[in-house]
Amino acid sequence: MLVLTTGGTIDKIYFDALSQYEIGEPTVPHIFKEVGFTLPYHCDSLMKKDSLEVTEADRELIRKRCEEAKESQIVITHGTDTMCATAEFLIGVEGKTIVLTGALAPSRFRETDAVFNVGTALGAVQSMPAGVYLAMHGQVFRAGEVWKNLETRRFELIQ
After folding, report:
1. What are the residue boundaries of the structural domains of the chain, listed by start?
2. Quick one: fold of 2-157?
3. In the annotation, is 9 catalytic?
4. Residue 28 and residue 32: Cα distance in Å, rounded?
5. What is the pLDDT of residue 15?
6. What pLDDT was estimated at residue 19?
7. Percent of the chain whose predicted confidence (pLDDT) is above 90
8. Source organism's superkingdom (predicted)?
9. What is d(CA 81, CA 75) in angstroms, rounded to the nearest whole number?
10. Residues 74 and 1 sit within 8 Å (Cβ to Cβ)
11. Based on CB atoms within 10 Å of each CB, which residue in 6, 30, 42, 143 is the most buried?
12. Is 101 marked as binding a ligand?
């Protein structure tokens, strides 16, 4: 399994002196250790960006890395604001099950959805057929069929 990290809230660190967040090192390896995940995986940090800063060139890099990966199961951690756009950009990558996930609160916080979302993504990447998916809050959505409702802070099917 390949884990690609791009930054986003899941990897943010809060600096009291600066009163702002910055993207830190990927937290997925720490989450895996905490929950006892033992399957072999490789983690590759592609970038450390807030998803609002992700460009088309960044999406092309993510897609290229997915296409070139020897692994057929890929989890991508991504900021939630533009995760749907990145997922749609990856539609058509052949022979891979790709699952994007993120968090609404940094994984380093005591109260966070990060561990649950990463766990959902791990289950999805191992059980879903080839394609591109988003895993958030216990639900798995097919790319192109989901949007982030900013009012409710939830991902929902496009109607």
Report:
1. 2-157
2. Rossmann fold (3.40.50)
3. yes
4. 6
5. 60
6. 57
7. 73
8. Bacteria
9. 17
10. yes
11. 6
12. no
